[in-house]
Amino acid sequence: MSQGDPGESFTNFTANGTISGAEVWSIYEDESGNIWFPAENSGVYRYNAGSGYEDEHPDAFTNFDAADGLNTNGIQSIFRDKEGRFWFGGWGGLFRYDGKSFYSVTKTGPWH
User: Fold this and answer.
1) Cα–Cα distance between 56 and 66 in angstroms, integer?
2) Which residue of 78, 85, 86, 88 pairs with 97 in a disulfide if CB–CB is 3.0 to 4.6 A?
3) pLDDT tens over the chain, length 112 residues
4) Distance of CA 56 to the CA centre of its chain
5) How many helices (H) and strands (E) does the chain have?
6) Are the beta carbons of 92 and 102 closer than 8 angstroms?
7) pLDDT (0 to 100) of residue 27
8) Is residue 65 a contact partner of residue 45, using CB atoms and an 8 Å limit?
9) Would you tell me how many other CB atoms lie within 10 Å of the CB of residue 1?
10) Residue of 106, 111, 89 lying closest to 98 (CA atoms)
């Protein structure tokens, strides 16, 4: 995962150790300008655009993984519905994030 400044340079967050996982599967920008992305076998990252940290600072990133309720770190897709809930799909199935917690979704729910 890299960030570029037009006409300047690129910062590679994978190479500098801020992000683990060599592949990024998808990218989503929320209404606050935060960038969400799953990284290979590393769960989901959120780049906190308004964190006040320089881009290279590790605290500008939040990593969500199995310790946060995902039963897999192999997440491949991100979707946000009109109610503002995030949906993540991956090797372990479907997960919903309501801004506080992750929920594993099965055919019986929880859907709301």
Assistant:
1) 24
2) 86
3) 555 556 665 555 554 456 666 677 788 888 888 889 888 788 888 888 766 555 555 567 888 887 888 888 888 889 999 888 899 988 888 999 988 888 888 766 666 6
4) 17
5) 0, 10
6) no
7) 87
8) no
9) 20
10) 111
HSE, side-chain direction, 13 A CA sphere, residue 77? 9
In a domain, 94, yes or no: yes
Identify whether 112 is part of a domain: no
How many other CB atoms sit within 10 Å of the CB of residue 39?
22
Tokens, residue 19: 């992000």
What are the strands of the beta sheet with 35-38, ordered from one edge?
Answer: 28-29, 35-38, 44-47, 61-64
Question: Residue 58: what are its φ and ψ, rounded to 5°?
Answer: -55, -30
Q: 25 Cβ partners below 8 Å, 6+ apart?
A: 37, 38, 39, 40, 75, 76, 77
| Cα radius of gyration (the chain) | 14
Whether 111 is in a domain gets the answer: no
What CATH number did the domain enclosing 64 receive? 2.40.10
Contact 111, 105 (CB under 8 A): yes
DSSP 8-state secondary structure symbol assigned to residue 54: -
